[in-house]
Amino acid sequence: MSYISQMSFQNPWWVDKNRILEDEHVKRAKVIVPPIDESALILGPRQVGKTTFLKTTIKTLLEREDPRSILFFSCDAFSKKEELISLVNEYRTLVNREKSAYIFLDEITSVSDWNTALLHLFNAGYFNDSLIYVTGSSSINLRKEMLPGRPIKKYVFYPLNFRVYFNTFYKKLIQDHVKVDEKDELYENALKLLPYISELNKALLEYIRRGGFFATSFSENPLSLYEAYKDAILSEFLKTERKESMFKVIIRKIIESYGSRISENTIAKDVNVSHTTIGDYLDVLEKLFIIRTFRKIEGGGKTNYRSLKKVYFIDPFFFRVMKIYSVGKDIDDIEIPLIVEGIVGEHLAREYKEVGYLHFKSGKEVDFSVGNVKVEVKWRREKEKKRYNNVDYVLTIDEFKKSDEQLTLPVSIFLYLISSDKFFYELTSISHL
Q: 350: part of which helix (H) or strand (E)?
C-alpha cells in the first residue's frame, strides 16, 4: 500500500508553505510553546496540546526550511509497525531523498510495537541528519532502554502547572523558582508576592475548575468540553483491551477516597475481583497520565510499595470530568480542599523524583514528603485528620507567618514559587517506565 496521497493530504505545505496557516491547530493556538531543539519522544494525556505543539513548530520551521524536508503524519489510523516503517521509507525514498529532514509522527503509541519500529528506522538510517519528534498518550510499552544509544530524549507534556498558568493568563511575577528545601529563600520570595495575593488566589480558584489544559483555559464554559475529554480518556484506556465497566468503578472509588489512603484489596473487595486486577488497572491509569500515585515514605526516606497509597488525578479538570462520568454530577465545594491537596502533590511530583506521604503508628499523617521536607495542606478542611505538627510548610488560603521551623503560606504563593516555567518534563519517573 502506498501512503503518498495520505502524506500529501497531511502535509499541504509541500505545495504551498502558507497552507500551514490554514491548519486548525495553528489557527486555534493562543500560546506558542517553545520548540525542543533535539529529537524527542513527547508523551502526555490526550487533549493536552501535543499536536498543536507539533504544528506550531512546523510553522516556525517553514520560515527557513524546504517544505518537503518536513513530514507530519498522524499515526492514529495505523495498527502495525510495518505500516509506520513503510510510511517513512516512502517519504525518504520518494519525497526527500538524501537530505536532512524534520519528521513529526503524532500519536505513535497507538501503533502496535511502535518502539521496535522506531529502533528499526534509526538502525536503517532513515533518521540520519534529521530531527525526530514523536508523540503519544501512553507510556505502557516504554522502557529505560527502549532506544539504546539513539539520540532521542523522553519528555512528558503535562497540563500547565499553576505558575505557567498564571504567567500565561495574568502576568509573570518572579523569574526563578525556588527549591522546597531552601526555606529562607522561599520565604523572601513569598514576601515579594504578597501584594499579588488577590490575583494569585483568583487564578488558583480558576485553575481548580479549569485545570491546566489550553482548551479549558480559553473556554467560557470548560464543561462544554466534557465529552471531548471524557472520550479522549476512554479511547486511550479501551485500547489497552480492559473493561470500561471496571474502569468506571475504580474511578468512582478513587473519587470517593480522594485524599485518603486506599489499597487494591479494599477496592477489590467492593467490586469482587482480585487485588492484582485492581493493581493492573491503577498501573494502566498512571501510565496513561490520568492519575498520580503517592506511596508511604518510611524512616530513612525509603518508599514502601506495599503499604496503602494515595491517588490523585494529574489535573483538576480530570477530577471534574471523571466525577461527572462515574458519579453523574460536578464537584461540590466540600471537595475543593481535597482537589487543592492533589494539585499540591502533582506540582511537587513534577519537580522532584521521590514524593510520598507520611503515616505514623499514632495515626497521624503528613500530606507530602519531599526528602526531609514535610508539606501539609490545610485548605478549609471540615473534617480534620490527625496531623503531625512538626512540618516545614503549612499551606492555607491566605495565612502568612514564619516561625523558627515552619512556614505558613498561601497555597497559591507556594505553588507559584516551587514550580518551574517548563512545558516539558524529562521522563525519569519510575512509575512510567
A: helix 336-351
CA-CA-CA-CA torsion sign (194, 197, 200, 205)? positive
For residues 284 and 44, give the distance between their C-alpha atoms in angstroms, rounded to a whole number: 14
The helix/strand/coil state of 334 is helix
> Cα 240 to the chain's mean position, in Å?
19
Q: Which three cell numbers stand for residue 400?
A: 502568612
The rounded distance, in Å, linking the Cα atoms of 197 and 396 is: 12
CA dist., res. 317 & res. 216, Å (int): 8
For residues 286 and 236, the answer to whether their CB atoms sit within 8 Å is no
Strand 393-396 to 373-377 pairing = parallel
Nearest to 305 by CA among 273, 282, 285, 339: 282
3-state secondary structure of 137: coil
142, 433 in Cβ contact below 8 A? yes
Directed axis angle between helix 411-418 and helix 336-351, to 10°?
Answer: 20
Q: Which spans in 288-410 are helix H?
A: 316-326, 336-351
- Please report, in tens digits, the pLDDT of each residue of the chain (433 residues total): 789 999 999 999 999 999 999 999 999 998 889 989 899 999 999 999 999 999 999 999 999 999 999 999 999 889 899 999 999 999 999 999 878 999 999 999 888 888 889 889 999 999 988 999 999 998 876 654 466 666 788 899 999 999 999 999 999 998 888 999 999 999 999 999 999 999 999 999 999 999 999 999 999 999 999 999 999 999 999 989 999 999 999 999 999 999 999 999 989 988 889 999 999 999 999 999 999 999 999 988 899 988 999 999 999 999 999 999 999 999 999 999 999 999 999 999 999 988 999 999 888 999 999 999 999 999 875 455 666 678 999 999 999 999 888 999 999 999 999 999 999 998 864 344 4
Measured CA to CA, the distance from residue 407 to residue 121 in angstroms comes to 53
Going from the C-alpha of 216 to that of each of 24, 129, 213, 228, 251, the distances in angstroms are: 17, 38, 6, 11, 21
* DSSP, res 32: P
> What structural domains and CATH numbers belong to the chain?
4-157 (3.40.50.300), 162-432 (no CATH)
- Of the candidates 233, 365, 370, 354, the one whose C-alpha atom is nearest the C-alpha of residue 303 is 354
Q: Which three cell numbers stand for residue 333?
A: 465545594
Contact (Cβ atoms closer than 8 angstroms) between residue 78 and residue 110 = yes
Angle subtended by helix axes 197-210 and 162-169, to nearest 10: 110
Residue 19 burial (10 A CB sphere; 0-12, 13-18, 19+): middle
